[in-house]
Amino acid sequence: MEFLEGVKKKEIFAIRELEERKPFGEKVSLQGAVHSIRNMGEVEFVILRNREGLFQAVIEKEKGKWELKEGDFVTVRGLLREEARAPRGMELQVERVERISTPSEPMPFAVDKWNLELSLEAKLNMRPIALRNIKERAKFRIQEGIVRAFRDFLYGQGFTEIHTPKIGAKGAEGGANIFKLDYFHKPAVLAQSPQFYKQMMVGVFDRVFETGPVFRAEKHNTKRHLNEYTSLDFEMGYIDRFEDIMAMETGFLKHMTAFLEKEYENELKLLKVTLPKVDAIPMVPFEEAKRLVSEKYQRPMRNPYDLEPEEEHLIGRYFKEEYDSDFVFVTHYPSKKRPFYAMDDPADPKRTLSFDLLFKGLEVTTGGQRIHSYPELREKIKNRGMSEEGLEQYLDTFKHGMPPHGGLGIGLERLTMQLLDEENIRETTLFPRDLSRLTP
């Protein structure tokens, strides 16, 4: 009988290990896929690709002919030597090759090119192959870094990570943008957000966060909308004012940029990303933001209750030009356009203690303070002409007391898109779901 005692150490080096140790003159083994082959007559330069990036191997013809081809997955062993002309200042002089697997047909396109020169639709149709391109893959390494930074920062701030259901009886946001389904002969919906559960858990853990999918049945076909996206959510209790939520997000953004700069330096350089400054983020009330851009850019105000995409763009432009800030918090949105649980401003009940964060002229976060008083919550539901049906358990939580609290939701794909200066959110969505796409 055998027993397992933990992670099995393989006799295979990681690229980072080689860069740190630099064991020149020693025999080492590497694993990866054949990314590209350059035949120089008596010598072949084989570029290997694995989770850490690319590494150069050299095969001298007289030492063996393995007839490698692009897409082969291999283990190579040989002498590590210093080579200033190689991408990492070193290369592997191959002495032995073990082919792990080989493709059944040629690649549909050259993944080793810097730009794939494919349409977005073509890239999405062949997503698992297109992502083998180093540039395409780097986008999602940076996205990984955003999520890691979110978790890391909030753990440091005393938050507890939770995981809430994505199938429920009622939507948190209301309205018609809900995916409905049959759940064992009962009506159910896909979660628009973890809002109700986040609030309920504030009464348990004080501070909670979650990263998970949310679903919106919106019939949008734009460069900024998806029907399933990943939301970075947190909710925190014992707040003094709704600005505490914005301050917490500012702290996260500072941590995120520092974390990416340290841990994802290679990907940032590869994609030529300039990280935004987040030393201080300006705040502006909703009505003032509309007035400022209307006056400066001679744009008439049309919708008094919400920001149109063009207005968001102009607000972002205004604060970049006037304050050199890529971010701006727009606060005090009209109560008419916010969910029933949003706390109204005591100074003006037509406004709410809520906000959106715009990043380069696009909304990436929505948040604010919530109503924590049970009578006030029921009163607002009543005033909106809503039914309490389906909200019973949510409301029961407030019967037993809740601290003043608030929170937010960040759209991960939008945040990544703006960080990387992409024009279409599908570029920063691993497998997009929109009006027309259910595969791959």
From TrEMBL:
<feature type="region of interest" description="Aspartate">
    <location>
        <begin position="195"/>
        <end position="198"/>
    </location>
</feature>
<dbReference type="InterPro" id="IPR006195">
    <property type="entry name" value="aa-tRNA-synth_II"/>
</dbReference>
<dbReference type="GO" id="GO:0050560">
    <property type="term" value="F:aspartate-tRNA(Asn) ligase activity"/>
</dbReference>
<dbReference type="InterPro" id="IPR045864">
    <property type="entry name" value="aa-tRNA-synth_II/BPL/LPL"/>
</dbReference>
<dbReference type="InterPro" id="IPR004365">
    <property type="entry name" value="NA-bd_OB_tRNA"/>
</dbReference>
<dbReference type="Pfam" id="PF00152">
    <property type="entry name" value="tRNA-synt_2"/>
</dbReference>
<dbReference type="InterPro" id="IPR004364">
    <property type="entry name" value="Aa-tRNA-synt_II"/>
</dbReference>
<feature type="binding site">
    <location>
        <begin position="411"/>
        <end position="414"/>
    </location>
    <ligand>
        <name>ATP</name>
    </ligand>
</feature>
<comment type="function">
    <text>Aspartyl-tRNA synthetase with relaxed tRNA specificity since it is able to aspartylate not only its cognate tRNA(Asp) but also tRNA(Asn). Reaction proceeds in two steps: L-aspartate is first activated by ATP to form Asp-AMP and then transferred to the acceptor end of tRNA(Asp/Asn).</text>
</comment>
<dbReference type="Pfam" id="PF01336">
    <property type="entry name" value="tRNA_anti-codon"/>
</dbReference>
<dbReference type="GO" id="GO:0140096">
    <property type="term" value="F:catalytic activity, acting on a protein"/>
</dbReference>
<keyword id="KW-0067">ATP-binding</keyword>
<dbReference type="InterPro" id="IPR012340">
    <property type="entry name" value="NA-bd_OB-fold"/>
</dbReference>
<dbReference type="GO" id="GO:0004815">
    <property type="term" value="F:aspartate-tRNA ligase activity"/>
</dbReference>
<comment type="similarity">
    <text>Belongs to the class-II aminoacyl-tRNA synthetase family. Type 2 subfamily.</text>
</comment>
<feature type="binding site">
    <location>
        <position position="173"/>
    </location>
    <ligand>
        <name>L-aspartate</name>
    </ligand>
</feature>
<feature type="binding site">
    <location>
        <position position="370"/>
    </location>
    <ligand>
        <name>L-aspartate</name>
    </ligand>
</feature>
<dbReference type="GO" id="GO:0017101">
    <property type="term" value="C:aminoacyl-tRNA synthetase multienzyme complex"/>
</dbReference>
<feature type="site" description="Important for tRNA non-discrimination">
    <location>
        <position position="87"/>
    </location>
</feature>
<comment type="subunit">
    <text>Homodimer.</text>
</comment>
<keyword id="KW-0963">Cytoplasm</keyword>
<dbReference type="InterPro" id="IPR002312">
    <property type="entry name" value="Asp/Asn-tRNA-synth_IIb"/>
</dbReference>
<dbReference type="GO" id="GO:0005524">
    <property type="term" value="F:ATP binding"/>
</dbReference>
<keyword id="KW-0030">Aminoacyl-tRNA synthetase</keyword>
<feature type="binding site">
    <location>
        <position position="363"/>
    </location>
    <ligand>
        <name>ATP</name>
    </ligand>
</feature>
<protein>
    <recommendedName>
        <fullName>Aspartate--tRNA(Asp/Asn) ligase</fullName>
        <ecNumber>6.1.1.23</ecNumber>
    </recommendedName>
</protein>
<feature type="domain" description="Aminoacyl-transfer RNA synthetases class-II family profile">
    <location>
        <begin position="140"/>
        <end position="440"/>
    </location>
</feature>
<keyword id="KW-0436">Ligase</keyword>
<dbReference type="GO" id="GO:0005829">
    <property type="term" value="C:cytosol"/>
</dbReference>
<dbReference type="InterPro" id="IPR004523">
    <property type="entry name" value="Asp-tRNA_synthase_2"/>
</dbReference>
<feature type="binding site">
    <location>
        <begin position="216"/>
        <end position="218"/>
    </location>
    <ligand>
        <name>ATP</name>
    </ligand>
</feature>
<dbReference type="GO" id="GO:0016740">
    <property type="term" value="F:transferase activity"/>
</dbReference>
<feature type="binding site">
    <location>
        <position position="216"/>
    </location>
    <ligand>
        <name>L-aspartate</name>
    </ligand>
</feature>
<keyword id="KW-0648">Protein biosynthesis</keyword>
<keyword id="KW-0547">Nucleotide-binding</keyword>
<dbReference type="GO" id="GO:0006422">
    <property type="term" value="P:aspartyl-tRNA aminoacylation"/>
</dbReference>
<dbReference type="GO" id="GO:0003723">
    <property type="term" value="F:RNA binding"/>
</dbReference>
<feature type="binding site">
    <location>
        <begin position="224"/>
        <end position="226"/>
    </location>
    <ligand>
        <name>ATP</name>
    </ligand>
</feature>
<feature type="binding site">
    <location>
        <position position="366"/>
    </location>
    <ligand>
        <name>L-aspartate</name>
    </ligand>
</feature>
